[in-house]
């Protein structure tokens, strides 16, 4: 089962009884890079998708009692009722499986942390705060008192409304408030972090990577050089079209280099021969937003451990290009997927699959362990231990799967996340 959330596509894509309008102000008079177009389409304060959808992320009134449900059909019917009653877009896994999802993450952190120093946790994009509360609850109940008493948990949240919700959620347990704070800012903005923090810490990102801005590069065939894609208004001021320019943007050039680090001469020759026989245009989506965020995190938190969860695959994507996004909206009570990202002008979600192989390479690149071509400096960053696990494998290792199992043995936490993975990355002094 491939899902955006653990519900069916019918349930989770996206909005019930919510009208929206297109905005022609996503692109101004001057062309913009694709990443800037996507950022505006999603996050513009006036016209962005998330700005117009104040209730895009749901909060369950109470935890689901999985062991009281007969099986998959009963679970899906229960979800259907929740979605219709809540009138929201979708529930995150950490919300649907509270508190067990967050408890699994907390257990993974406890097993790999240096407990001789105070535990520091940062969460990027904390949503409703249910992950923070679940982790704080788990550590309060299961760790030595000194760990809980001396820990800090910082949520870096770009949405002011979600920041307030997080404070309320975590504040349900009074003792958590002395350990928890929300910083309402963009985590990818270096200026918001202040001085470099040398102490060990954890960074959590749950379903953050899929909504980070991406760039697009285009080539006429398999051997022609890449060109960066810009978005420009037509003369009628309504339609948008693509504009292709030589690679000049530093962030795009760095991302292309990371993607192509392993390419060798024999591969290039083979592609040259193939392109002469079957010339074919190429389009490639680049996670430049992720690269920028990792750059900042590795600079300001050089000893961080990272845990991220996201979609490794998205079904029914019609937009062309490697790592292409799904662009979806709700019209007249039904979900609708666009065939072009240019149609998303504040009325649709734009979300990408995560290439976990590429995520690992960017992680090593930003930490300084992997070097760009032409960098002959002797300074070498620290190698990192990394691990990619399917969600089911992660939860079987660190969670309590028995808590999300129905009477007939069906377990949505393990069975319905075939297109999601966890990425764990921890620093090490072993550079061999």
UniProtKB/TrEMBL annotation:
Its EC number is 2.1.1.320. Gene3D superfamilies: 3.40.50.12710. It catalyses: L-arginyl-[protein] + 2 S-adenosyl-L-methionine = N(omega),N(omega)'-dimethyl-L-arginyl-[protein] + 2 S-adenosyl-L-homocysteine + 2 H(+). Its main location: mitochondrion. SUPFAM superfamilies: S-adenosyl-L-methionine-dependent methyltransferases. InterPro entries: NDUFAF7, NDUFAF7_sf, SAM-dependent_MTases_sf. GO terms for molecular function: protein-arginine omega-N symmetric methyltransferase activity. Transmembrane segments: none annotated. GO terms for cellular component: mitochondrion. This is Protein arginine methyltransferase NDUFAF7. It comes from Populus euphratica (Euphrates poplar).
């Amino acid at each position: 089962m491939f899902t955006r959330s653990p519900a069916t596509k019918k349930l989770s894509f996206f909005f019930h009884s919510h009208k929206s309008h297109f905005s022609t102000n996503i692109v101004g008079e001057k062309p913009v890079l694709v990443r800037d177009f996507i950022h505006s389409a999603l996050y513009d304060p006036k016209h962005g998708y998330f700005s117009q959808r104040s209730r895009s992320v749901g909060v369950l009134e109470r935890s689901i009692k999985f062991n009281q449900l007969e099986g998959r059909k009963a679970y899906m019917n229960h979800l259907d009722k929740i979605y219709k009653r809540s009138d929201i877009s979708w529930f995150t896994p950490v919300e649907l499986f509270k508190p067990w999802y967050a408890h699994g993450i907390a257990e993974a952190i406890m097993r790999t942390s240096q407990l001789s120093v105070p535990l520091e946790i940062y969460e990027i994009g904390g949503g409703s705060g249910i992950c923070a509360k679940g982790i704080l609850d788990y550590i309060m109940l299961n760790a030595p008192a000194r760990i809980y008493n001396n820990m800090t948990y910082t949520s870096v949240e770009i949405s002011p409304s979600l920041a307030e919700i997080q404070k309320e959620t975590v504040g349900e347990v009074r003792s958590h408030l002395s350990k928890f704070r929300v910083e309402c800012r963009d985590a990818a903005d270096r200026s918001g972090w202040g001085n470099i923090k040398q102490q060990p810490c954890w960074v959590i990102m749950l379903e953050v990577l899929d909504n980070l801005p991406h760039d697009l590069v285009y080539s006429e065939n398999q051997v022609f050089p890449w060109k960066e894609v810009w978005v420009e208004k037509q003369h009628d001021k309504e339609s948008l079209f693509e504009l292709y320019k030589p690679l000049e943007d530093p962030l795009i050039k760095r991302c292309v280099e990371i993607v192509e680090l392993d390419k060798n001469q024999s591969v290039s020759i083979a592609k040259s021969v193939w392109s002469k026989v079957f010339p074919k245009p190429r389009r490639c989506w680049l996670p430049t937003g992720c690269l920028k965020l990792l750059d900042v995190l590795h600079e300001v938190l050089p000893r961080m451990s990272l845990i991220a969860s996201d979609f490794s695959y998205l079904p029914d994507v019609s937009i062309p290009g490697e790592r292409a996004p799904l662009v979806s909206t709700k019209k007249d009570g039904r979900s609708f997927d666009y065939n072009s990202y240019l149609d998303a002008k504040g009325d649709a979600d734009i979300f990408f699959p995560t290439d976990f192989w590429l995520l690992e390479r960017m992680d090593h690149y930003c930490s300084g362990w992997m070097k760009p071509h032409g960098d002959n400096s002797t300074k070498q960053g620290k190698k990192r231990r990394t691990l990619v696990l399917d969600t089911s494998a992660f939860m079987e290792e660190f969670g309590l799967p028995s808590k999300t199992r129905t009477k007939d043995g069906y377990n949505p936490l393990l069975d319905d996340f075939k297109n999601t993975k966890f990425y764990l990355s921890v620093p090490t002094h072993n550079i061999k």
